[in-house]
Amino acid sequence: MSWLFWKKDRHREFEHAVGLLASQQQEIKDAINEISKRTAENLQQQDEFSGQLAKLTRLQYKSGQEVQAKLEQLAQGLKAVRQWQAEYDAKTDSFITVSRQREYLLDVLLCQLDEIDMACAGLNDKENNAWQPLLHQWAQRIVAALAELGIYEVDIIGKTFDPQVAIGVGVMPRAPGTAANIPYEVAEVVKRGFVDSEGRLLRKAQVITYQEVTG
Fold it and tell me: 184: which strand partners?
């Protein structure tokens, strides 16, 4: 009788053990399924990450190419600016040189013209003066050469004295019987005055005016 009870107890223990084993197997299956699910999700996330990384890499490459192109354009622009600056400096130096040469030439021509005018004035009262026409011709050639350079003589003789363009260095009486129609009329130019092509005064003329008769 006791043996039967023992057999029944052993059978119940076996069934309980089988139930536990089945429960553990189910838990293991559930765990494996969960791991598989998470693995699949991780793989999907990894694929998405790989795709985003590839897209980012392409964008970075494209951006790098664009930046490189812009840097090359900037380098070319800077090279062009440096070349332009060099050309500008060369032209500026050349312009300064030409300007100095022009000023020197102007000084020489004006000095020669003044000397010729002085020589002509000194020969006015000389009889049988054969040199005066030639000197006058030389003076006119210099005046014409200055005009070619854009430098023009101030037309002042026979006009009213203008302190803006002339300096009075003396007066002289009018010839007897001549009318004084122009007040402070310029009678003689001692040194010629000049303006440039834009009307800027380069040198005032030195002149002698007719003496005004008062009373």
Answer: none
**In this predicted structure, what is the pLDDT of residue 116?**
84
How many residues comprise the chain?
Answer: 215
Residue ranges making up the domain that contains 182 = 151-215
Domain with residue 163: its CATH number is 2.30.22.10
Check: pTM over 0.85? Answer yes or no: no
Helix, strand, coil percentages, rounded to 5, for the chain:
65, 15, 20
Cα torsion angle, 137, 139, 145, 147, sign: negative
First to last CA, the chain: 181
Average pLDDT taken over every residue of the chain: 79
Would you say residue 134 lies in a domain? no
Contact present, 159 and 175 (Cβ < 8 Å): no
What are the φ and ψ backbone dihedral angles of 177, each rounded to 5 degrees?
Answer: 85, -5
At which residue do the structure tokens 């040189």 appear? Answer: 97
pLDDT digits (tens, 9 = 90+) for 51-74: 776 776 777 777 677 767 777 777
Number of domains in the chain: 2
Spatial CA neighbour of 114 closest among 143, 149, 144: 143
Confirm whether 131 is domain-assigned: no
For residue 85, the tally of other CB atoms under 10 A from its CB is 10
